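This part of the workshop introduces the protein records we will be handling. As an example, a complete record with its sequence and its structure tokens follows.
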Amino acid sequence: MSEKIRPVKASDLFQLQELYKKRKCVPELNWLLQDPDVPDKLNGYVAENKEGRIVGMIGFISSIYKYGDNEIVGVIPMSWKIEDGYKGLAGIQLFKKVLQHGEFNLTIEGSEIAQSMYSMFGLTNIGYSHTCMKLIKPLKYYLTLENKSLYKRIGNLTIMLQSYIKRTPKLKNILKIKEVDVNSVNKDIPYIHKTYMEKYMTANFIKWLLNCPVNESYGFEIFKDEAFIGYSVCYIHKINNKYNRGRIVYMPNFGHNWLQARELIAYLTRFLQQKGCVSISLSLMDRDLLKVTKASSYIDYTLKDKPIFVKPSNILETLGVDVNKWYMQYTEGDKAYRNI
């Protein structure tokens, strides 16, 4: 018998917490499913069995993407969770429900089981999102890997040491960067570099990122001379209540102004280093920005790269977008705050 699929409600959050066996708490789920533009609205669906008990859920984020003069609504499924014993039709119904939203769908990575099913839903792999890493404190970083095997810990540290020996570029003070709190975020980030496809970053979305309840969040406002360029967001996650890991969640698009991009990466790297982070991660897809990031003392940790899937498969071809000109970061779905 098929399960009942319906929109998620605020009153479901305690049941969803139990579905996750309390690995996600109510405040986290409330934030995760919250529509950035309509805070009282939750974006997602649940599956109920015949007794009315929730046995599955899926969330999604809906955003405007811009390329040239084109605007298109993209929807990203996230936090697809099914109770053991219901991982059949319920999961399929939930996923199909989300794919009915938007003009195109995007998903990043997912479990092995999920990825094996993507083709059934019409999702096609178009490339990979690069995960770039910077090692700050080798010994303390090693201690954060205690849940991995000795072999994996040593292998991980060996790879990361390549970034440790690289020096972070000196600041040239070509940008004005200041820390801001969530209440000071009041401007949408202008879409200027029209040769790139990118998510239109609204003030509401930046606020949503900064309101993450499970990490320390930091916002930055960036100007070049007197011109507003945009905001940046960083997270810090504490491991075992001892060690900080940092993440550069979002940087505005500098187009081909690579010196400005390098300046911001250097500034944020120093900021997170001063906060005691043992390592820093960031994610990107743009090939040119990848070169700048690697030149800024980071490594492309290819073992952590994430496959990207889209539907319809020809969406980028239809728009005329070069996949290497998709300005994509940790702002897609729920990747930003997880596994820091």
